[in-house]
Amino acid sequence: MFLSAIVKHAQINIDPITWEACKAGDRQAYASIYTAYYPRLYNYGHKFTVDTSLVEDSIQEIFTLFWIHRQKLEMVKELRSYLFVSFRNYLIKLLQQHRLIQSGTDIDDTAYAFALDISAEQQRINAEEVFAQQEQLQKGLQLLTPRQKEAVFLRFYENMPYEAIADMLQISVKATYKLIARAIAELRTTCRQPLTAALTLSALAALLGSMDLALQLSR
């Protein structure tokens, strides 16, 4: 079940024809992009705040601007990165205005929180068999800094390249590699209890919907 969910998520993609049609003013193409990315942005936004209205307002605003300025986006190389960067910047701006995170131009680990938890669904499945591992993983996640959590989420859940993550977090690509490597090392250290490989991969894949992350942590 988990692997099918992962594959389904990975298949969400906008082809170049749809992208070009949107820029040309095709509302159906625009709707396809909106439908594909709304739930992903919504999920991402709720890791910054539980305030649904702020998340929804941010999504609506960036999609409105996206449609208005669609013809000026010829230089956009990767649609997903563009939408995520635009959404993140606008949401953080709203959070600052509502004093839900610290104000300032530098958004670092002291300025905001990023929630990264084992899903409630996974906690209900095979509870007795994987409880110990889930508990370890949960503790490990809480030890990560907000920036580490966000980088892990973007890399292993959204499958973003390191270059795109670096742009989003406004750090170098080298620093991004180090950030994710340290997060994985921290999680590996926390998950010390020996468990079978099958249980390890099942629980870790369900953690973020990412078999890639499971393989990284099981090495």
TrEMBL record:
PANTHER family: RNA POLYMERASE ECF-TYPE SIGMA FACTO, RNA POLYMERASE SIGMA-70 FACTOR ECF SUBFAMILY. Pfam families: Sigma70_r2, Sigma70_r4_2. The keyword Transcription applies. Keywords: Sigma factor, Transcription, Transcription regulation. It comes from the Bacteria. Coiled coil: none annotated. Residues 33-99 form the RNA polymerase sigma-70 region domain. Signal peptide: none annotated. It comes from Chitinophaga defluvii. Residues 135-187 form the RNA polymerase sigma factor 70 region 4 type domain. InterPro entries: RNA_pol_sigma-70-like (IPR039425), RNA_pol_sigma-70_dom (IPR014284), RNA_pol_sigma70_r2 (IPR007627), RNA_pol_sigma70_r4_t2 (IPR013249), RNA_pol_sigma_r2 (IPR013325), RNA_pol_sigma_r3/r4-like (IPR013324), WH-like_DNA-bd_sf (IPR036388). CDD domains: Sigma70_r4. The keyword Ligase does not apply. Belongs to the sigma-70 factor family. ECF subfamily. This is Sigma-70 family RNA polymerase sigma factor.
